[in-house]
Specification:
460 residues, alpha/beta, Rossmann fold, 3 domains, 8-stranded mixed sheet, 4-stranded antiparallel sheet, 17 helices, 14 strands, globular
């Protein structure tokens, strides 16, 4: 009797837990995620240890019509002990990728591997703790990233407390005092609060908080952009010092290519969520293949004010690419140099690279020459209009719910309004009016049908 009841519940509820779907014997069950990180990552063809691998990652914010794809099919590897820099203009998706690496931003597609183990998506709790322990982040704004109600000693010690990375209280104090001195502060600063420090000192505290954990990978999200120029070199030298002493690997996020050249081993250039070029630092500066990389390098200021005044900026125009039929992809053109383009563009990039002649990215013209006049005239012209309809939409294209409500109660007015909105490129307003109009006419049609049926019933 007991066995029959047990089998009944096993069959009934066991199937329910599997979504009422029978298992496919031809399809192997997905292997569970590793519970712990290995000591070393996989080795590539050139004998380099791959510490972090980003594979075809998409990151999307929002849902439905309001969804915005911030990162599109991003792929790159970071090798142990190197500094890999991710550069691009504001809003290109640099920080979004960095936050995905530390598991703050979820990936809508693709995977992120650390030492060959997948760390994106749902992973075991033990693995999650190891990732937090081994991957630290230095944030862009030192004021916002520090707890104003906590002392510096607690801020730096918090990771040690959470993972119990000390033998006793004396060992914890020693570790905190050592790291605070290594970043250029004094032990007496430990009893103070973040608001008592300057911006540069706060960033040193943030750096100490990350380094006290002895991480293998540090995501540095524009750690010097909020600092004075005189302080930037000091923080960069600190990062290089820690890398030399502890073998730390950096994912360095920045938009200033002149600084990136100083600190990087390899550089990845990102434009509107797409990785458009990856190469070693000197290779990228000598042979910038993608037009967007060319424009970034040409924007680096020249110390000589007279030369800077006569410099002609190279402006990137996305409309030069025709990706309607021949779709682009990130391809290795040789010399470990990856460029984003279609087949025709890749062939041109390969031919240009095989010549071996460094590409001149800066053009200086003589004052008063025809070239200088032409350059000034081009600078005064309006920038090229984007081909993306959502970017061409007017400022007041809000898609307010009131448009849908009014179109519902006044469907005839909505029928007139939504084609006008579409013609004027008010796409969000057009969708709201169209939705309200369709629902409004549907309700009117339903009322007419019901009234007709009632009328026929009465007459019969």
């Amino acid at each position: 009797m007991f066995d029959s009841v047990k089998n009944f519940f096993k069959e009934k509820f066991g199937r329910r837990s599997n979504g009422n779907k029978a298992a496919d014997p031809a399809k192997p069950a997905p292997s569970p995620a590793a519970a712990h990180l290995p000591e070393h990552g996989p080795i590539d063809e050139q004998g380099r240890e791959v510490l972090l691998s980003v594979k075809n990652v998409d990151i999307t914010f929002g849902k439905g019509d309001k969804a915005v794809k911030a990162v599109k099919n991003a792929s790159f590897d970071i090798y142990k002990g190197e500094t890999f820099s991710l550069v691009g203009e504001s809003g290109s998706g640099k920080t979004t990728i960095g936050r995905a690496v530390i598991r703050v931003n979820p990936c809508s597609a693709g995977e992120i591997f650390y030492k060959g183990v997948r760390i994106s998506g749902k992973i075991p709790h033990s693995l999650d703790r190891e990732v937090i322990r081994n991957v630290q982040m230095v944030f862009q704004d030192p004021a916002a990233s520090l707890n104003e109600r906590a002392t510096v000693e607690y801020i730096v010690s918090e990771g040690l407390y959470n993972f119990h990375l000390y033998k006793d209280e004396a060992d914890r104090v020693k570790k905190v005092e050592t790291i605070i001195e290594e970043v250029g502060l004094l032990p007496e600063h430990l009893t103070r609060y973040p608001h008592e420090f300057s911006g540069g000192q706060r960033q040193r505290i943030g750096l100490a908080r990350a380094m006290v954990m002895d991480p293998e990978l540090v995501v540095a999200d524009e750690p010097i952009s909020a600092l004075d120029v005189s302080i930037r070199a000091q923080v960069l030298n600190l990062l290089k010092k820690f890398q030399k002493e502890k073998g730390i690997t950096y994912l360095f996020i920045a938009h200033d290519l002149s600084i990136v050249r100083f600190i990087s081993d390899r550089i990845g250039v990102i434009y509107k969520g797409n990785i458009v070029e990856i190469a070693e630092a000197e290779e990228l500066f000598n042979f910038p293949m993608h037009p967007y990389t060319h424009s970034l390098i040409s924007a680096i200021p020249i110390p000589d004010p007279q030369l800077e005044k006569n410099k002609v900026l190279y402006t990137y125009d996305p409309s030069i690419h025709d990706y309607s039929e021949d779709k682009p992809e990130l391809v290795n053109i040789g010399h470990d140099h990856y460029v984003y383009g279609n087949k025709k563009e890749i062939e041109g990039y390969k031919a240009l690279r095989e010549k071996g002649e460094p590409i001149k990215t800066i053009k200086i013209v003589k004052p008063g020459s025809d070239t200088a006049k032409k350059a000034k005239k081009e600078e005064k012209q309006e920038p090229p209009v984007s081909n993306e309809p959502i970017l061409d939409a007017p400022l007041h294209d809000t898609g307010s719910a009131w448009y849908a409500v009014l179109s519902f109660f006044l469907p005839l007015l909505g029928l007139i309004a939504f084609p006008i909105f579409k013609a004027k490129k008010y796409y969000k307003n057009y969708k709201a009016c169209k939705k309200g109009t369709i629902i409004g006419w549907s309700v009117i049609g339903a009322i007419i049908v019901i009234f007709g049926i009632l009328l026929l019933t009465t007459l019969i």
